[in-house]
Amino acid sequence: MRITTTDTAYFLDSGHYRLTVSRTDPSAELEGWMTLSLIASVGTAGGRDETYETLPPVLAEREGEAIFDFPQRSTGWEAKTVRLTCTPETIAVEVRVEGHGLIGDVTLLGGRAVLNTRAAGTFRTGLHARGVFNPTPTHPVQVVRPVSVPLVLTVIGDASPGRLHAVFSPPPLVLAFCKEEPDGATAVPGGPWLGASVRAGIADLTFTELAYEPLDGGALLRLDYECHTSVSGTWRSPAVVFRPASSPWEAISQHREDLVAHGLAASAGERHDWWSRPIFCGWGAQCARADGVSPTELARQELYDGWLSRLEEHGIVPGTIVVDDRWQLAYGDPAPDPAKWPALGEWIAARHARGQRVLLWWRAWAPDGLPAEECVTDAGGRPVAADPSNPAYRRRIRTIMERLLGDLGADGFKIDFTQWFPSGSHLKSYGTTWGLALLHELLRTMYEAAKSVKPDALMITHTPHPAFGDVSDMIRLNDVLEYDAHGDPVPAVDQLRFRHAVATRAMPGHLIDTDQWPMPSRTDWLAYAEVQPALGVPALYYVESIDNSGEPISGEDLRRVADWWWPGGPAPLARTAG
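and the corresponding structure tokens:
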């Protein structure tokens, strides 16, 4: 890197980017991309953090890097510094504070201040890009959106308006900026691109979401800690790392590489051959059969037997069967519902005798069936979610795993609803962990307990963040969405390819569950089924008809799926012990 200095600025040319760092105000110009605001705010439960004086930057040069520290006087902290660390390929921005408090919102690349010029209010980074790539599926579907449109990467969401953005929970925490206007729901413009990723491991992922908040040509990033992270002494935020890239896919790969280089990513565990066999999940068939009743009422032994029999008649013999929602009496402490599954253990043993494996659907965070003391509770003391920070809940999970994997003989779990995180600054939990880190603790509790009972248990999640590699064996691409921002349908296959590209770059050592629900039509379903084997482990959800359109599925349709998934005919399934 070459640095030249004048009275007003440092000029840095790394060979990969050019950066002009001001010596008179807290900003830096990243040539061609953005004018970085080097203001930051670290709010607390006690109030806002506002900068009321900025001091000139201090440069420290080390081998291979240049560090610019921007000291700032703050209303909320005894000391505050925004640090800009430059290497030949990356620029990292973080904030460091000293003092005491419970952290609320943290803003980087902007924040509240009264500058030395007496300009006051909220300051933001200036944007020269035209589009921003979002790695998480959203509804409306919009993979690359104008830079003026906000987005959030989060573990909180559902299907309500403004909340359907946690299909991946969590996604890789990386954005990517481009210089072309986006065109189409899943279209990705050509390069160049600039990646912007969060460098943090599980210990520092105690926030619930990263929000990109643009306004009038500027933007800042907001991390929401919900007043559950305590500071007593010194604290530093995760760094936002900028790096040039040829595509958003390369930006995701670089994000993973950065986490690996800093010891913050997790590798996949041992893989077992049976995990790669085609899956049948009964949820789509339950939805298609539902007529005036909830699909959850149709997770029944006799229906699954009928569906599997019809599939086998037409050449489809799945290696793995997922018994979906709701086979259990209670979500929080699950045991088979005897009215629906009068002999689940014997049923699983019979499937094992045929060479098939059985996964059980699991609803994450569900508090029903749990005592309040094992739950995250609200201000009224009511259970909101299971609390994995509580040793009693962790002991309960070990007992449940012994019951379901040991006594019943199930082979693993499809873990769903990780996006129903117990969000709220007033919520109370046993421990101090929060945010993405608490979700990781929930999954780690399940993962370790399951593996202790059955080492080859398969754990499927929809958490394609590189730090979650040690709590998942297979990444599920999750529910297919419908429309773009103009209200036009988005082909399911296009959504599949986008999600596959994200997941395989964030977690290249993991298998991919291609999912298959919901489908808008029989035509979309067949198109989706045809490409599934090339993009991961194929999963079949439909047997008799398509739920959204009501179109029947013929025997010929099923035979076509069999030909696509088993071109030479189904391989014999190895029999397993019950």
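(Above: one complete record from the training split.) Residues 436-453 form the longest helix (18 residues).
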